[in-house]
Design goal:
The chain is α+β, with helices and mostly antiparallel strands. It has 18 helices and 13 strands. Helix 7 runs antiparallel to helix 8.
C-alpha cells in the first residue's frame, strides 16, 4: 500500500496523528522553559564578565556549560523524541564543544530509557500482521539499544538466522512533527534576540530529512544501496536487510556485532589501532561522498562498530543521501578547489551548488569554505578542534552580517553535518590523519573527467 500523501509540513504523511492539545502544550512549554533558562544563563555570564568583572571568566562559563547541559539532559529524558536526537548530535561534537556538554549528554547515545516490551510486541504484531512467535523463533525482550525514535532487540528467525529488530515507538512520528514545530518557533524567537545567531535557514533545511528517519522501508533501501557500493571492500560491513519482515515501522536485519567506535579502551583490548580506525573512517567517507555520491549522514558513535582487522560496521541508514550526478560533481569541484586554494573555483563551485548571498559578494562563500574544510586543511589538523572553531566563530558572524546567506542547499548541510560528526570521532580517536594527503587523491582522480566536461551553463 502506498504511503498517504504528505501534508504541507516537512513532508510527513497526512495520516499521522499528533498528540492531543494538552500534550502539545506541555511539550511546547518544556522547550520554551529550557531555551529561556539556557539563554538567560549564558547572557548573565556574558553581561557580568563584560560590565562587572571578568575575573574567573573561564570558570563561570564552565559552570554555566554544566548547568545548561544538565538542563538539556533532564528535559530530553522527560520529553524523549526529537530532543534526545538533538542532544545525541551535540554529544558527538567533542572536537568543538566543552567537555561539560559532551560528557553530560553522551549517555543518551544508546542508553535512552526503553519502552516496555508489551508495547514493542504489540507494535511488531500490528505492523507484520501476525503473532511475534510466527515471525521469530527467539526474541529477547531486553533491548540491545534504545534511541530517540526506536529501540533494537536481538532475535532469531525460524530458519536460524540471527537478527536485530528495530521497532519504532508507537506515536513517535506525531510527537516528532509537533516537536519540530516547537523548535522552529523557539529558534525564531531566539533569532529576534540574537541576530548574529540566526540559524533558521539551516534549521529549516536540516529538518527536511527528519521524516525520512521515520520510514524504515526507506532505510532498508538505503542500506541495500550502501551494501552494493561496498560489496568489493571486505573491510566495510553493512548488515543485510530481511525485507519480508520489514515495514515502515519495523526493520529486521542481520545481527552484526562489534566494538563501539568511541570505546577506545575496548579497541585497545582487542588489539585494534585507533589511529588506523580513524584513517579508514576518513577514507570510507571520501568514497561515499566523492566517489559514490551516496553517504551516511548520521555517523554518530552508536551507528559505527569496529571489528578486528580493523573492519568498519555501519548501521542505521535512516539519514542517508543520494546526490544527483551534477550535485556530486559540484561537491568534487568544491573539494578540489578548497584543497588547491583556488578562490575563483571555490566561488564558482558554491554558486553551482545553489548557494546565494544577499549582495552576491564572494566574502561569505570564501568564509564558508573555511568552515567546510579549509581551516582544518590549512592548520594541518586531523579535525576541527575547539581553538579553530573559536577563531572562526569570531570572524564568521561579522562576515555573515555584512552579506547573509539567503539560500543554502540542504544536501550540502547534510555533508557538513556528516563532517562535523566525523570530526568529533577524530577527536575521540586522537586522529593523526593527514586530511590533505588522504582526500586529495580522491579529488584528483574524480576531477580528471570533470575537467574535460564543458563548464555548467552561466559560467
Amino acid at each position: 500500500m502506498p504511503n498517504p500523501k504528505p501534508d504541507n509540513y516537512l513532508d510527513f504523511p497526512a495520516d499521522i496523528a499528533g498528540p492531543g492539545l494538552p500534550t502539545r502544550a506541555w511539550r511546547f512549554w518544556n522547550v520554551v522553559w529550557l531555551a529561556g533558562s539556557v539563554y538567560t544563563g549564558y547572557k548573565t555570564v556574558q553581561l557580568w564578565t563584560r560590565f562587572v568583572s571578568d575575573r574567573n571568566k573561564a570558570e563561570l562559563y564552565r559552570r554555566q556549560d554544566l548547568r545548561a547541559a544538565r538542563a538539556l539532559y533532564r528535559t530530553a529524558i522527560r520529553l524523549e523524541g526529537l530532543l534526545i536526537k538533538a542532544s545525541q548530535f551535540i554529544a558527538t561534537r567533542a572536537d568543538v564543544l566543552p567537555d561539560e556538554w559532551v560528557s553530560t549528554l553522551s549517555g543518551l547515545h544508546d542508553r535512552v530509557p526503553p519502552r516496555p516490551f508489551a508495547i514493542i510486541r504489540d507494535q511488531i504484531e500490528r505492523e507484520l500482521q501476525r503473532p511475534l512467535s510466527a515471525v521469530y523463533k527467539e526474541f529477547d525482550s531486553t533491548p540491545l539499544a534504545s534511541a530517540s525514535l526506536a529501540q533494537v532487540h536481538r532475535a532469531r528467525l525460524h530458519d536460524g538466522r540471527r537478527c536485530a529488530v528495530k521497532v519504532q515507538y508507537p506515536g513517535i512520528d506525531g510527537i516528532v512533527r509537533a516537536d519540530l514545530k516547537n523548535m522552529t518557533t523557539v529558534l525564531s524567537w531566539l533569532a529576534m534576540l540574537e541576530r548574529d545567531f540566526d540559524y533558521r535557514i539551516l534549521m529549516r533545511e536540516m529538518l527536511k530529512y527528519i521524516p525520512m528517519e521515520l520510514d524504515f522501508v526507506h532505510e532498508a533501501e538505503n542500506s541495500e544501496t550502501m551494501r552494493r557500493n561496498f560489496a568489493h571492500n571486505p573491510d566495510v560491513i553493512i548488515p543485510e536487510v530481511y525485507h519480508e519482515f520489514t515495514t515502515r515501522r519495523v526493520l529486521t536485519m542481520e545481527l552484526v556485532e562489534g566494538i563501539k567506535v568511541t570505546d577506545v579502551e575496548g579497541l585497545a583490548r582487542a588489539g585494534i589501532d585507533k589511529h588506523v580506525v580513524a584513517q579508514k573512517l576518513v577514507e570510507n567517507f571520501c568514497e561515499q561522498v566523492l566517489r559514490d555520491g551516496f553517504f551516511h549522514a548520521d555517523p554518530h558513535p552508536g551507528n559505527i562498530l569496529i571489528q578486528p582487522g580493523p573492519k568498519i560496521v555501519l548501521l542505521d541508514f535512516g539519514l542517508a543521501k543520494d546526490f544527483p550526478p551534477l550535485f556530486r560533481d559540484g561537491i568534487v569541484r568544491l573539494t578540489f578547489s578548497i584543497l588547491t586554494s583556488d578562490r575563483a573555483g571555490i566561488i564558482r563551485a558554491f554558486s553551482d551548488l545553489g548557494f546565494r548571498t544577499r549582495n552576491g559578494s564572494p566574502d561569505t562563500l570564501l568564509a564558508l569554505s573555511d568552515l567546510f574544510l579549509g581551516n582544518t586543511i590549512k592548520s594541518k589538523k586531523a579535525y576541527a578542534d575547539k581553538e579553530l572553531i573559536e577563531q572562526f566563530s569570531e570572524e564568521f558572524p561579522r562576515t555573515l552580517r555584512a552579506n547573509p546567506v539567503v539560500e543554502v542547499p540542504a544536501d550540502v548541510l547534510l555533508v557538513s553535518r556528516m563532517m562535523g560528526l566525523l570530526s568529533g570521532l577524530g577527536k575521540s580517536l586522537d586522529s593523526q590523519v593527514d586530511l590533505f594527503t588522504t582526500i586529495m587523491p580522491y579529488a584528483q582522480r574524480l576531477m580528471i573527467p570533470l575537467i574535460a566536461q564543458p563548464a555548467p551553463a552561466g559560467e
